[in-house]
Amino acid sequence: MSRSDLLSTLMREHRDGLVSYAEKMLGDHGLAEDIVQETIIRAWRNSDRLLGMDGSVRGWLFTVTRHLVIDWVRKPHARREVVGVTYNDPVSGTEGTDAVHDALVVRPLLRRLSPEHRAVLVHIYLCDRSIQETAGILGVPAGTVKSRQHNALRKLRGAVRPEAA
Asked: Most buried in the list 13, 35, 55, 158, measured by CB within 10 Å?
């Protein structure tokens, strides 16, 4: 397979899935398309590696897309432009036990939370941000972030183990 064949195959077979995946994380179709464009560029730059790859090219593409989304969300411009951005799908690809566990257990639990509480947990635990950073991104006081974190964790504990609530 040539480099140009690889590129057209990637676009034909994976573009829509990658855009949908990035859009779920970002909540913005245009931005998701930009992220996927960069993913395809990186695939083009690494075409020799991809052509000789034993593993899943699809998995590689989803991993690159996920990393690009995380990088974008962490950039200072994203913090100012998209206040309260939610990061809904931190799992890369659709393979593995972690993805199955998240799909069956974690996601339904997170859906029980309000968007405000969910955003705090996502920023603190999935994006590894401090309370101060999270407060700045969400545009709320640090005390509000601490309160939302506490209440969200209490609600999740109650959902998992009712006696812990």
From this structure: 35
Q: What is the pLDDT of residue 51?
A: 73
Q: For residues 69 and 67, what is the distance between their CA atoms, to the nearest angstrom?
A: 5
Asked if 98 and 105 touch (Cβ cutoff 8 Å), the reply is no
pLDDT digits (tens, 9 = 90+) for 62-100: 989 999 988 888 776 554 444 444 555 444 444 455 555
> How far is the C-alpha of 100 from the C-alpha of 97, rounded, in Å?
5
Rounded to whole angstroms, what are the CA distances from 66 to 5, 52, 60, 89, 143? 24, 22, 10, 9, 30
Token reading at 56: 């899943």
Could you report how far apart the first and last alpha carbons of the chain are, in Å? 57
Q: What is the dihedral of CA 98, 99, 103, 105, to 10 degrees?
A: 0
| Cα–Cα distances in angstroms (integers) from residue 127 to residues 47, 80, 92, 159, 160, in the given order | 30, 16, 14, 23, 23
- Give the other-Cβ count within 10 Å of 158's Cβ: 13
